[in-house]
Design goal:
The complex is a heterotrimer of chains A (about 375), B (about 350) and C (about 80). Helix content of chain A is about 40%, strand content about 15%. Chain A has about 375 residues and is an alpha/beta fold. A 5-stranded parallel beta sheet of chain A has the order 2-1-7-8-9, with helices on both faces. Chain A has a 4-stranded parallel beta sheet with strand order 4-3-5-6, with helices on both faces. Chain A is globular and about 65 Å long. Chain C has one domain: SH3 type barrels (Roll). The chains are: A alpha/beta (about 375), B alpha+beta (about 350), C alpha+beta (about 80).
């Protein structure tokens, strides 16, 4: 597969590993946060940590929209399916997230909810057209990569005057989350999370461009390297970050030049601002209320807003007390620091969303990397 | 049996346009007609012809081996096969990987009211063809009809019966550190062929299910003289689930080399598109085998002489590991675990 | 939530619809979010939509950079 296989080449990986080893300084540690869940998954799936020197540590960030979706939002989707009798269309990732009353969307389906997995919002539109007698709601989650497709669908539904289609909008914004991390006491004051730089998201950046990250580099003096999704991209980005740290630079660099430009995708950005506007505040699982961090549907398209049509009231629901998802999302704790990890909380019986999404730090570690926990104990 | 109707007045089943209706399961003449004209016509043999509630079978040489499976695949007809062939292959394989020679099959059908007879005929013909190729005979069967909406077309349950020669004992708890792990061919074909036909995933990929009877291959492998510990067919859950099962049973670990695991490029690409891992995808015409390290080359050679084992490969080895983990060195160079899948394989968007 | 992969555009139809190919597998996607895409271009596809055109020259440059980093190490004898 072109533009995929070349960037997974094991021989080039060896070379990059050697280059990284040659450039790190032995007298310091390097801690980089990979913001995007896709990177967390790639790092685990290819065993990238095995090719990095021990003083380079990757901290998993909150860039997994499934992981940061609060229980209260899933409850809204479940309510729509079970009480309002809608056909609830969702991406596969949300189906197993544990919500209130021991339910999840998958369990709600077993209780009779008409909950359908779709690969694309276009499928949801089709379901709406094919079922004119039923209400169809699309559960829209995701960062800036996934928002433009929802915008296209909303405009399309508007043009077609589709009467039975609405969107439950839970789209969130990357820069706000990064800001939240950088502003957190653990990073700013306490130094509990020593952060030397960020591996910037790949596909979010194809949409928003590399410019939005310049603020973080300047204001917080943290280098950002935007990296493609393949393991070689991640290693190249780590090499670039190491160089910045060694040279005391804090710039935004772009490793993913084949798909990311400074301005990003104008057309997509315009479509998004046509359809959505900022919410004053939005609760993120693990991060609490974050201002101007999420989107809602504009008044002009109110007819396609599920929150309006079904008069939904968001109720925050606290997480399981022992669940450390919040701390893990902020990089303050590792999966193995959570008492529930691997015992009560496993991919089969997830307690929190870090374990549900295959990109969540806990799921990634459990599925791909937990053999290391035993080696460390044995060593 | 029904009373005789004067010759020339009996109307045969309308295979082309007819549909299953409740009378076909009623135990009366309609059901007998369905069985005679459709099932017995294609699947008949001297055992079915006994025509009693239970079939008498001759004694066999060695230990009796039995296996059973229900088939609920959707869609019923998929690229490379259908539920009929699949039901025969699956059960033949379960018996064969035990080292036994499969001889007999039983089949229970649950038909949905309204199911087109033309489709039923196709499926039954497919079963007959599969049974003939595998050299097994259908010796007992049952048909039930349920109301519309209660059976998704049809469900088939098959049971396979075979005999295991004395001296052969293959079992999942027999793998020992140092043993070689082999597969008979490419992983993930069947599951991705099914995915390609599922309603909400519309892609046009040339992926065919690998559904096939493996008894010829297993016979060749046993004849090679290699010390085989266990053979298993990696169906639901794929290679990952099967190897984890064996690791647990044998209380050992397994180390794999990703580069050695055969995967067809189009299966790779389809998995990539849907965010799936070929190691978790079902196979219906493949097997894994674990054997003594010294015999691996001979066993591999024996497999490769058989048409269903041409792509056979050695993919790893069994190791000491109290945790019974299955780990893999990726093509990239780093290591990761190959874990059981949680729940149903859902296409990842993220 | 960013699973997106590079795919080659093999057919463009009206209404912003196109067919792309990844390693022999074909899928319909929407081109509503991109402009000036032609058959033969590679695009990054996410949840059924093309997000951007992939620049083949930049891809080659990046790959060269990565390979170079390794070769330099060998030359230096690291």
């Amino acid at each position: 597969m072109k533009y995929i296989d070349e960037f997974r080449d094991g021989e080039v990986a060896k070379g990059l590993a050697a280059a990284i080893k040659a450039e790190i300084r032995a007298d310091r540690r390097y801690n980089f946060m990979e913001f995007c869940g896709g990177h967390t998954h790639a790092i685990s799936r290819y065993g990238v940590p095995d090719l990095l020197p021990p003083n380079v540590r990757m901290i998993h960030g909150p860039g997994c929209p499934v992981c940061v979706l609060p229980i209260g939002r899933i409850d809204l989707a479940i309510k729509l399916a079970l009480e309002d009798g809608v056909i609830l269309c969702t991406y596969a990732d949300t189906l197993r997230i544990p919500a209130s009353e021991n339910l999840s969307l998958m369990r709600a389906r077993a209780r009779g909810g008409d909950i359908r997995m779709v690969y694309s919002v276009m499928d949801a539109l089709r379901i709406a057209r094919d079922n004119p007698g039923k209400e169809v709601v699309f559960f829209a989650i995701g960062f800036e990569t996934t928002t433009p497709p929802t915008a296209v669908a909303i405009k399309q539904a508007h043009i077609e005057a589709l009467k039975n289609f609405t969107v439950l909008c839970c789209h969130v914004l990357t820069p706000s989350a990064i800001m939240n991390i950088l502003e957190s006491p653990e990073v700013r004051e306490l130094g509990t999370v020593p952060l030397d730089g960020f591996v910037g998201p790949a596909h979010v950046s194809t949409v928003i461009g590399s410019r939005p990250y310049e603020f973080f580099a300047e204001e917080y003096r943290k280098p950002v390297v935007i990296a493609g999704f393949e393991p070689l991209d991640v290693m190249q980005a780590i090499l670039m970050l190491i160089r910045q740290v060694n040279e005391d630079r804090a710039e935004v660099e772009n490793e993913f030049t084949r798909a990311v430009t400074p301005e990003g995708n104008d057309k997509a950005q315009n479509l998004v601002s046509e359809v959505f506007e900022l919410r004053r505040s939005f609760e993120w699982r693990g991060l609490g209320e974050v201002p101007y961090s999420a989107l809602k549907i504009r008044e002009r398209f109110a007819g396609l807003d599920a929150e309006q049509r079904f008069n939904l009231k968001y109720q925050p629901v606290p997480d399981n007390k022992a669940c450390e998802c919040g701390a893990i999302l902020r990089g303050v704790k590792k999966p193995t620091d959570c008492k529930l990890f691997g015992t009560v909380c496993t991919p089969e019986t997830p307690m929190g969303s870090c374990m549900v999404s295959s990109e969540g730090a806990c799921a990634a570690h459990y599925t791909y990397g937990r053999y290391k926990d035993f080696e460390e104990t044995a060593a | 049996m029904s009373g005789q109707v004067k010759k020339g007045y009996a109307r045969s089943l309308d295979i082309r346009h007819g549909r299953v209706d409740m009378s076909h399961g009623g135990g009366g003449r309609a059901m007998v007609q369905l069985i005679t004209e459709l099932f017995a016509n294609h699947l008949g043999n001297e055992y079915l012809a006994q025509g009693n509630d239970g079939t008498c079978l001759p004694a066999g040489k060695g230990q009796l081996v039995v296996s059973t499976d229900s088939h609920v695949v959707s869609p019923l007809f998929f690229p490379g096969g259908d539920i009929g062939g699949l039901s025969v292959h699956g059960t033949v394989n379960d018996v064969s990987v035990m080292g036994a020679t499969p001889l007999y099959l039983t089949a229970g059908f649950i038909l949905e009211e309204g199911f087109p007879l033309a489709d039923l005929a196709r499926i039954v013909e497919s079963m007959a063809q599969a049974a003939n190729e595998a050299g097994v005979k259908l010796v007992a069967g049952d048909t039930k009809v349920v109301e519309q909406g209660k059976a998704d077309g049809l469900f088939i349950t098959t049971t396979g019966i075979g005999f295991l020669p004395d001296g052969i004992r293959l079992s999942g708890d027999q793998a020992r550190p140092g043993d070689a792990v082999l597969v008979s061919g490419s992983m993930g074909d069947h599951g991705m062929a099914i995915m390609s036909k599922r309603e909400n995933l519309s892609f046009d990929a040339p992926i065919l299910s690998d559904t096939a009877s493996l008894n010829g291959l297993t016979a060749a492998m046993l004849a090679s003289g290699a010390a085989i510990r266990v053979m298993r067919d990696p169906t639901r859950g794929g290679l990952a689930a099967t190897l984890n099962e064996i690791a647990q049973q044998s209380k050992a670990g397994i180390h794999l080399e990703e580069g050695n695991i055969p995967v067809k490029p189009e299966v790779d690409a389809a998995c990539e598109l849907l965010g799936l891992d070929p190691l978790n995808i079902a196979n219906e015409g493949k097997l894994i085998a674990i054997c003594a390290a010294g015999d691996a080359d001979d066993l591999l050679a024996a497999m490769r002489t058989h048409p269903l084992g041409r792509q056979a490969a050695m993919i790893g080895k069994v190791v000491e590991d109290a945790r019974c983990f299955v780990q893999m060195t990726t093509k990239f160079g780093g290591r990761r675990m190959v874990d059981w899948l949680s729940g149903e394989q859902l296409p990842r968007i993220c | 939530m960013c699973l997106a992969i590079p795919a080659r555009v093999v057919e463009i139809n009206g209404n912003d619809q196109a067919i792309v190919d990844v390693g022999g597998v074909r899928k319909d996607v929407s081109l509503a979010l991109v402009a000036e895409v032609t058959v033969g271009d590679y695009v990054i596809v996410h949840v059924g939509y093309a997000l951007t055109r992939l620049d083949p020259e930049e891809a080659a440059k990046t790959l060269a950079l990565m390979t170079q980093a390794g070769l330099t190490q060998q030359a230096v004898g690291a």
